[in-house]
Write a structure and sequence with these properties.
CATH topology: FAD/NAD(P)-binding domain
Oligomer: single chain
Largest sheet: 9 strands, mixed
CATH class: Alpha Beta
Bound molecules: flavin-adenine dinucleotide
Helix content: 25-40%
Number of helices: 11
Structural class: alpha+beta
Length: 412
Amino acid sequence: MRRGAEEILVLGAGIQGVSAALALATAGHRVTLVDGDDDLMRGASLRSEGKIHLGLVYAHDPSFRTALLMLESALEFAPLLETWTGLPISWDRLVSRPFAYVVAHDSMIAPDRLFAFYARVEDAYRELRGRPGLHYLGGIPERLVDDAVPVGRVPWLSPEVASHLVRTRELAVDTIRLREVLRDGLRRRETIRTLYGHRVCSVRRTGTGFCVSGLTRDGAPWTREAGVVVNCLWPGRLALDRQMDLLPKRPWVYRLKIRFFCELPEAMADLPALTVVVGPYGDVVPWDARHTYLSWYPACLRGWSSAVETPPEWERACRGEVAPDEALRVERESLDAFSRIVPGLESVRITDVAAGVIFAWGDCDIDDPASELHERHDTGVRGADGYFTIDTGKLTSAPRFARQLLERLDAA
Ligand SMILES: Cc1cc2nc3c(=O)[nH]c(=O)nc-3n(C[C@H](O)[C@H](O)[C@H](O)COP(=O)(O)OP(=O)(O)OC[C@H]3O[C@@H](n4cnc5c(N)ncnc54)[C@H](O)[C@@H]3O)c2cc1C
């Protein structure tokens, strides 16, 4: 490994940067974890729905590679974090109720093909199930997917919009609680130093490694030297990669997506977590009666950019400062659409609105069957010679990519 004044500088304290820092420190490296925000996990990782994907959403990737990446990543997620934090994590305190998939009449994949895809995911899981060291958020379920039930037999679903309900073992993690677990993990590692409130502006190679510089919250310049740099800046990643001549040569898109929290009416207290498939629909994740995540894609998609840097005006929405008239419009559209599937959802009370950024390959939206957004397998660690950049892809795959980073460093 190349050596500089500090051994490894991990840029970005979202799930990816924190996973990388923990993995590196566990392997004996000294790490400085830098973020422009005042705390860890305040970006997409916090805004995320937190689903630890088993691959079931990615039925429109004919290569099956996205489903497999998600499934394998999901089974590594908890074991890796447990090892690196050194903590016995009580996953049952962190996870949602299991997801049920609602198959829309106008699904991009017809039910028969969809169920064949679920069977393929189940087969892939059977191959992996019980392998030493793997588990899914503290459990090793017998099966992932139940048989589809016609919507006519599900009293709380409207048959007008959907044809089937498929119950699964898929779960989400509460990102606020996950953040606290990761914070404890960072504290326990004496070789990790955190440098929050430090915006990163530039990186350059030096004789011994790299020089990274930027501005503090007060506008004061700062500089750090390191032998190795790991770029986990997500919305800020490409701006730095460009300085290292690593700008991708294929189309990419940053999307700004709003999500709500709401209170469910009492009559809906037992609602499962729901994902509507396959296409531009949405999700509901009830945590408790007062705390339910909700997002309806066509209404909640608020920004689209193929620039190297995300538009500065997105930052307000990411901080939770969505203009009241915009929030109201998006709420109305989302609840109108959702209540056509689950009648009663129109009467939820919205308690919180904020957005997050999603990076992906592609140049057209998911309603186009040819859109690259249906494929999320070409993600992970790139770079060499001491500079690494990680396209997290999904929250689900962050620990896996941190493990792969370690393997690349060890091989260097
Ligand atoms: C609404 C929404 C729902 C989602 N749902 C899911 C889901 O259910 N399951 C799933 O697997 N994935 C989901 N995702 C995707 C997932 O959230 C992201 O892939 C993942 O969180 C990215 O993690 P990260 O650490 O790379 O980025 P982030 O969490 O955004 O972390 C990047 C960090 O870099 C910092 N930073 C950026 N630029 C700079 C700079 N110049 N200087 C200093 N610091 C900087 C930021 O402050 C931030 O802390 C969702 C995303 C969104 C937005």
